[in-house]
Amino acid sequence: MADEEGWLGRFVDNLPEQGWFKFLSNHFVVPYWVWREPKAKLPGGPRMAVQPGENLQRMMNLVMPLKDRSPIGRAKATLALGQSVDTLYAGLDNVGTIHFARFVIIENNLCMMSVYDGDFDSYVRDFIVSIGNVFDAVLVHVEGGDAVIPTKQNVEKFVDWIHDHDLFQMPDFATDLFDLQDEAQNLAANRAPHDLSSLSRALVLQLHANPNFALGSGFRSYAGYSAAQIRSTFGMGW
């Protein structure tokens, strides 16, 4: 059977795995692209959707770099949260739109991962009212946190700060990245379509501007079975 791809096609397909090609790409090609066609850093958090159902179970991935990156610094941030855990949980419960929230420390970052319903800005404002004092105690240990303390007196600045520290969420449909990049550059939405072959370059350039990001909006659903049904099926009883 004839080789349909040919030697040139195989050579091109194999280029990304070649060490010399990786070196040239990382040190020359990508920096040239960044200089020639820079992309603005896109804001974090989910984008409002037209369909109301798409504004349920939205995700916030807040990444807050610690001032003190030693074990002592991480311990101080942990204690700041631990000393206010009752207030924290009561406040999050009072917000009323939160499905779950948890704090984790990853390397030198204190992260808050949460799932909520509705508008992002309204969600941030709601938890300022409920747990702003807890965030004030935590932000003392976070780079740039002093600029928004006390949060209740710097609401708009804090909302912007959260946007800046929340992970950029990559669109669920890859080609939607073109629209986000055009919007960031104040380009008309109905301009000529982008060449699909340039998508990989657009992605590389955006990941240069947003090195940390979330892969899409994530899987969202409500459980199809109750705990009682699951336990009964497995014969576990109560």
Mean pLDDT over the residues: 84
Total number of β-strand segments? 5
Summed up, the helix count is 9
CATH-derived topology of the largest domain: Alpha-Beta Plaits
Beta-strand fraction estimate: 5-15%
Radius of gyration: 23 Å
What are the main properties of this structure?
238 residues; alpha+beta; 2 domains; 5 strands
Q: Layout of helices and strands, plus pairs?
A:
Layout: H1 6-14, H2 19-36, E1 58-65, H3 71-82, H4 85-95, E2 98-106, E3 109-116, H5 120-139, H6 155-165, E4 168-169, H7 176-184, H8 199-209, E5 213-214, H9 227-233
Task: Describe the overall structure.
By secondary structure, the protein is α+β, with helices and mostly antiparallel strands. 45% of the residues lie in helices and 12% in strands. It has helices at 6-14, 19-36, 71-82, 85-95, 120-139, 155-165, 176-184, 199-209, 227-233; strands at residues 58-65, 98-106, 109-116, 168-169, 213-214. α4 (85-95) packs antiparallel against α5 (120-139). It is globular. The termini are far apart.
At a glance:
The chain is 45% helix and 12% strand.
